[in-house]
Amino acid sequence: MVDVSGIVSGIVEKIFAALTANMVNIPILEPLINKLLQIPLVNLVVAFILWKPAFVILFVPGLLAVTVVLLIMIWWERKLTARIQWRVGPKEVSRRTGGIIQTLADGMRYMFQEVIIHRDAHKLYFLQLPILSFIPVLLPILLIPAGTIYAIRSPYAIQIAVALTALLPIFILGIGWSANNRFAFIGTVREAFLYVAYEIPLMIAVLSMVLLYKSGDPFVIVEKQWIPGIFMNPIAFIAFLIGMVMAAGRLPFDISEADQEIAFGPFVEYSGIIFGLVMGIAYEKLYLLSLIAAILFFGGWSGPEIAFLGELSYAIWLFLKAFVLMGFIVMVRAIYGRYRLDQALKFGWSSLLTFSLIGFFISAGWVIWLG
Amino acid sequence: MEEISIEVPVEPPKEYEWYFIPVPKKFVEEAYRKDEFVVFVGPQHPGSGHMRIILRLKGDFITDVIPDPGYVHRSMEKLAEYKTYIQNIPLVERPSIMDFGNYNLGYVRAIEEALEIEVPERAKYIRTILAELSRIGTHLYDAGILAVFLGHTTGFMYPFAVREFIVEMITRITGTRITGSFIVPGGVRRDVDNDTLQKIKRMTYALENRLKKFEKIFITNPTTIARLKDVGVLSKEEAIKLGVVGPFLRACGVEYDVRKVEPYEAYDEIDWEMVVGEDGDGYTRFLVRVNEVSQSINMLRQLVDNIPEGDVISEDIVAFDRKDIRGSFFEAYGDLVLPKGEYTSITEASRGSLLFTIVSDGESTTPYRLRIVTPSWLYLKGFMESLKGERLADLQAIYGSWGYFPPEADR
Amino acid sequence: MVRIKVEKPKVHKSVALHIKAITTAFKEAISPGTITIHYPRERRKLPDNFRGLLQLDKEKCINCFRCAHICPANAIQMYQRENKYYPGIDYTKCILCHFCVDSCPTAALKPSKIHDVAFASLSTMVLPPEELAGEPEMWREDTVTVEYDFDGDLKMIKRKEVENLIVEVEKPKRPEFVAGAAFPENCIACRICVNSCPQNAITFKLQDLQTMVLEIDFEKCTGCMVCIRNCPTQTLLPFRREEVLKGGESDEQG
């Protein structure tokens, strides 16, 4: 007779061993984790959560970080914009903290709001595309390491991550198509036009940095930054920054959403929590590009180690850098109005492309000079 | 590229007949044949206000345009026939409440012309102060709307914040934030104390200070210049032909300002300059109004400095206190009857020439006919003309640059 | 004349303008010129002549109908209370132009600084005269009063005080009037004036079969002029009280 329980427990033990071999080490939580690891079944869950590839997806820089970004960054954007505009901004929800949970309250309101699907919509795509758009958000995170916490190590990690984020507009196009609305259609066409105009300079800026470090491996990139990359190639940074603003649909280039002209373009028909999801897409993309920018230009996770956090301190540093960068980018909304589509296209194809090419040549110069 | 035209009978959609819109059948049929789009913008569209604009588009370019105003029509002229002359004062400022000073003044001047009332000097100055305050307020309001059309949120918040200063001063003078109803035949309802006058002067410096920041962040912002420069151009000849008025006429290079041509109130006693543009494009139209604000600030300072002492209510009016109408309002205006005839006043309101015509039968306390011709209505045609040949995305920018205000046009 | 001609900015100038805009935003982010008032907790100081909700002092009201007649929005309706009429206001119609306040000869209708009101339903917006006196039921959260002042820039003076929203108004400068029969030969003894007088100051007496005597008690007369407006033959006219008292008698025959 086969000992079924023996085989199962053997497999479980093997899985457990495999998970614990690659676990995130956080000294401050060590006693608690050790205690949890003693309990059967719970130890499996804990081990899985702390397994590095899972940790990357679930916590930093994955889902939890994305949620924090969505909740805090939107509040911060509103608060900062309000400050510049001589207002106060969100205040009444939790007045003592300056309304920091306002976004959470809005999100809860979205949860209880009816999701209206209009007659003309392509129901299937209309509902699933906003949820599917999490794929190109979460896939690049697998390739973005935070110090020793990483899922996949590849010499082409940065290139693949940027290529995957470039998939997001495809989902927006799909959303606009499935909404089957005039404004959504116009917005989708605008997005399609802009897509090429910003994606090429953005890619060139990334590639010029990859050329500078001679590798697309984030570990090599961070190691090679004896000074932050922004000082090595400021032109590429500017090209990347503007491309990032365009890619995230921030204000001088939020042409595809243009609420005064075409009422949020592709997203015009959404309501309820689905609207919350589609409005999050731009922030998620901004977050991803900020992470890449932090690695390429700001020395990634390098920073003084915080002892009690152990491996988590690298992740915290990376997250903080990306967060600060995002904090500045959301401010652009308070400074600029909106360009027209043809002006943005002209800018993207001429000035921005030239800028990124100059950045490329500077990188090439560095490579030749340093040998 | 070769034009494609299909010679097949095209039936415009049936819905167009239900919409009850002023679109000739030929307009739609032609568009269908020429591979053009007919696009309805408004009246609930976020960028058009309470007005529908019917566009014919070739690709992204506007080839023809038909306005469909009247969504906020309140039959003001007919309502005025059922109210006494004095009861019409709150009514006539309703077309454009942020511009109440000029609207009020225009109507009251028509009455004064009929009754041949001599207005005391001090009252004239106070009226001019009110008119200029509301002019600044209206220009700031329009600038804010323009900014929000361009998606510039700071450009929207700054003028509205600064407008709060104006509103504060208007509150101190009239007792209410926008609907003043303060100017009455023969003067103003109440004297303004010296404290408030000095505060107005102090306010102008604060206003200038804040507007400098607004200039840096919005007026000379490259995105603003890019969106408005050479957009919606109206030539001088066209502007004259289409009867454009006010700052928009001056932006096209015509030197015409009612305050200079036929000075009323205290405008000929103070030193100020007419602002004239040259290009007639959206940016010039905006800049003319920006410069008018600084002229108005200059005017306010002079008015405060030179204001004479004296009564504020005319000797020709039955009033027991010449500094304050309270207690004698009914005796003074309760049964005002205008002599038989037709009386017209032309005023330079913020957005252009404002015409009030009162026809009186000489017997009743209500006007036989009150004609209000508002500036927005007058330049609607020029506005539509300037849209032709522009991009669809520029519709909002041009709309904002004209400062078109549907309640004002529809009355 | 100010002439405006703008050239399209060159590239270097355009960059300078970009930088100017960005630095302005940064400056404002660091030291903002916030003008917001945290409204329910702070309240803007309003001038005494502020045109808020109306207050009625029933004692002073002389039942003259002036407010109801002048109202441009037809918001004032007179309510009968013990042989007298008092104004009640329909706030669904009222536009707060305060023509009624300016018309009131005795300052019975007074302005107040109350402007932020909410009514439970449309029917409660029609206020009879009894509800016009005193501060309405209010839920005041404010502890700070903010005054706008200007000193090169906006200066917000914050005082820890609660503003009294009820304004005391003096009686307007105005001579007192009484009604007198100016043209007694016109009188047709229709007695409209007798019936319309809220003070019962006018009486008719039958002297003999041919003549009636119209008597006006000047002590009772408040000068509301209702009788003058109602008189179909323009027998009555207003006179200044001091003149009449000097002149003495004014009983006339009709």
Describe the structure.
The complex is a heterotrimer of chains A (about 375), B (about 400) and C (about 250). Chain A has two domains: about 15-50, no CATH class; about 120-370, no CATH class. In chain A, about 70% of the residues lie in helices and about 0% in strands. Chain A has 19 helices and no strands. Chain A has helices at about 5-20, 30-40, 40-50, 50-60, 65-85, 100-110, 125-130, 135-145, 155-165, 170-180, 180-215, 220-225, 230, 235-245, 260, 270-295, 310-330, 330-335, 340-370. In chain A, helix 5 packs parallel to helix 17 (about 310-330) and helix 6 (about 100-110) runs antiparallel to helix 16 (about 270-295). Chain A starts with a helix and ends with a helix. Chain B has two domains: about 15-70, no CATH class; about 75-410, Orthogonal Bundle (Cytochrome-c3 Hydrogenase, chain B). Chain B has 17 helices and nine strands. In chain B, a hairpin with an 8-residue loop joins strand 8 and strand 9. The termini of chain B are far apart. Chain C is α+β, with helices and mostly antiparallel strands. Chain C folds into two domains: about 40-160, Alpha-Beta Plaits; about 175-255, 2-Layer Sandwich (Alpha-Beta Plaits). Helices cover about 20% and strands about 25% of the residues of chain C. Chain C is built from six helices and 14 strands. The chains are: A mainly alpha (about 375), B alpha+beta (about 400), C alpha+beta (about 250). Chains in contact: A-B, A-C, B-C. The interface between B and C is large, with 63 and 53 residues.
Helix/strand layout:
The complex is a heterotrimer of chains A (371), B (411) and C (254).
Chain A: H1 4-21, H2 30-38, H3 42-50, H4 52-58, H5 63-84, H6 102-112, H7 123-132, H8 135-143, H9 157-165, H10 168-179, H11 182-213, H12 218-224, H13 229-232, H14 234-247, H15 259-262, H16 272-297, H17 312-329, H18 332-335, H19 341-370
Helix pairs in contact in A: 1-3, 2-3, 5-16, 5-17, 6-16, 7-10, 8-9, 9-11, 9-16, 10-11, 11-14, 11-19, 14-16, 14-19, 16-17
Chain B: H1 15-18, H2 25-33, E1 37-41, E2 52-58, E3 61-68, H3 76-80, H4 88-92, H5 100-115, H6 121-149, H7 153-174, E4 183-184, E5 187-188, H8 194-219, H9 222-228, H10 236-241, H11 246-251, H12 258-261, E6 275-276, H13 282-306, H14 329-333, E7 341-349, E8 352-360, E9 369-373, H15 375-387, H16 394-402, H17 406-410
Antiparallel strand pairs in B: 1-2, 2-3, 4-5, 7-8, 8-9
Chain C: E1 2-3, H1 11-30, E2 42-44, E3 54-56, H2 66-70, E4 76-81, E5 84-90, H3 99-103, E6 109-111, E7 126-127, E8 144-151, E9 153-159, E10 177-181, H4 192-196, E11 202-206, E12 212-216, H5 226-230, E13 236-240, H6 241-247, E14 252-253
Parallel strand pairs in C: 2-8
Antiparallel strand pairs in C: 3-6, 4-5, 5-7, 8-9, 10-13, 11-12, 12-14
